[in-house]
Structure formats: C-alpha cells, structure tokens
Design brief:
Blueprint lengths: L2 H6 L2 H31 L4 H12 L3 H10 L3 H15 L4 H20 L2 H32 L6 H52 L8
Helix pairs in contact: 2-7, 2-8, 3-4, 3-5, 3-8, 4-5, 5-6, 5-8, 6-8, 7-8
C-alpha cells in the first residue's frame, strides 16, 4: 500500500489499521515478556530435578533438600516444598503433597500471567480486520453512488483492494498470536505434567525418568 493510498483512507479505516498495529505490538511485547519470565522462573530445568530426585530416593535427603533449595527453578521450588512436608510429617504423605500442590499452583499462576492477552488478540484481530473491510466497502460504494460521473472500474477496484487488506492484516496478526500462544501454552503444559510427575515420584517412588 502506497503513501497516497494511506492518506486517502477514511478516519475509521485508519483507526482500524492503528488498532491492528497495536495488537501486533502487544503480541510481540507479551511474547518477549513470557520468554523472559520463563527464563527467570527456570522452566525446563529437568536434569537438575532428576538429580535431586536421585538423591532423595537413594537415601540422601539432606543433600536432596539442599540442592532443591538452591535450584532457582519451578521444579526446584516444588521439590523443596514436598520434601519439607515429607520430612516434617513422615507418617503423613498427604501433608507433603498439599505443600507441593500449593507451591505448584503458585508457579502455574505466574506462568499463566498475560496469556489471556494473546487469546484476546487471536479473537479481536480478525474481527477488526473484517470491520475495516466493511467500512472500506461502504466508503468505496458510497463514493461510487454519489459520484456524478460514470464509474471508473479501476478506482472501484482500488477501493475494494484497499478495504480487503484490513482483513488480510487482521488474519496475519491473529495467526502469529495463535502460534505464539500455542508455543507458550505447550511449554506451560509440559512443565505442569513434569510437576505432577515430580511430586508423585518424590512421595511414591518412580518407574521412569523425567524427559527433557
């Protein structure tokens, strides 16, 4: 789209383009924030958690608890909680499981922050694009209806093409936001399943090792 086409757009159409630009910037901002947050929270540090479980299940609880307390990751904090509960009340494994559940809920809540913004972008961007197209079509045919001269098919086609670009932009923004959200949610779900496996392994033992 040329500068002349942009300047010829109506104010409502320009507002739609501005809103789509803001949604695309929001998607990039949330993606950068979540990647940084996941790094700070320590997602994916499964090997360290595996080593801690080895110590715990092989009769080295002091070493396991020390490593869990020093590990700056989601699994480290969950393991520290479940071990503290099991050592405080050895005869009551439910106490350790409850402490671990509370720690896991806290971690999962943090991991889920801002995800609804991406879901909103996925839903809003196509609707805004369609709104821009409808507005553009109304403008194009309105100008045609009020023109005292014979209609120029090229001008009409140009107006329709400009109107349809808002739908294309809206769909593009929604697709990018959808794939970003799917990737982030996949990481969260992987960590959630690993948390459940870690808690169960610490309390009841294990039959396999943590993947990843």
């Amino acid at each position: 789209m040329t500068l002349g086409n942009i300047l010829s757009l109506s104010i409502p159409t320009l507002a739609v383009y501005a809103a789509l630009t803001l949604l695309s910037l929001l998607t990039v901002t949330v993606a950068i924030f979540k990647i940084g947050q996941f790094r700070r929270l320590g997602l994916g540090r499964h090997r360290e958690a595996e080593a801690i479980l080895d110590d715990w299940l092989n009769g080295r609880p002091d070493e396991a608890q020390r490593k869990a307390g020093a590990l700056p990751s989601v699994l480290g904090r969950v393991l520290a909680a479940v071990m503290a509960g099991l050592r405080a009340r050895p005869a009551d494994p439910h106490y350790g499981a409850e402490l671990a559940r509370q720690a896991a809920l806290s971690e999962l809540t943090q991991m889920g922050n801002r995800m609804r913004l991406l879901e909103a972008v996925v839903q809003m961007a196509p609707m805004l694009g369609l709104l821009g197209t409808v507005i553009g079509m109304i403008d194009a045919f309105g100008a045609l209806a009020t023109s005292p001269q014979a209609a120029d098919p090229r001008l009409l086609a140009s107006g329709i093409w400009t109107a349809l670009t808002t739908t294309a932009v809206g769909l593009a923004v929604a697709l990018v936001a959808y794939f970003v959200a799917a990737w982030l949610e996949g990481r969260i779900e992987d960590e959630r399943q690993t948390i459940e496996l870690v808690i169960s392994s610490a309390i009841h033992g294990r039959v396999g090792r943590i993947s990843g």
